[in-house]
Design goal:
mainly alpha, 1 helix, elongated, membrane
């Protein structure tokens, strides 16, 4: 039972480190957000415009 707890602890730690690495990657490679820029939503080019 102790061995299972240790592996579970390591698994949770590895997931946390992977999440932090993904967050750092997204933060450093993402676009800068400036106020006033329109929000770009990926959609089909031939979709109707409702605005």
């Amino acid at each position: 039972m102790k061995r299972l707890g240790a592996w579970l602890f390591y698994l949770v730690g590895a997931i946390a480190v992977a999440y932090l690495a993904l967050y750092a990657y997204a933060a450093f490679t993402g676009r800068d957000i400036t106020p006033g820029d329109p929000i770009r939503i990926f959609r089909k080019p031939d979709a109707p415009s409702y605005s």
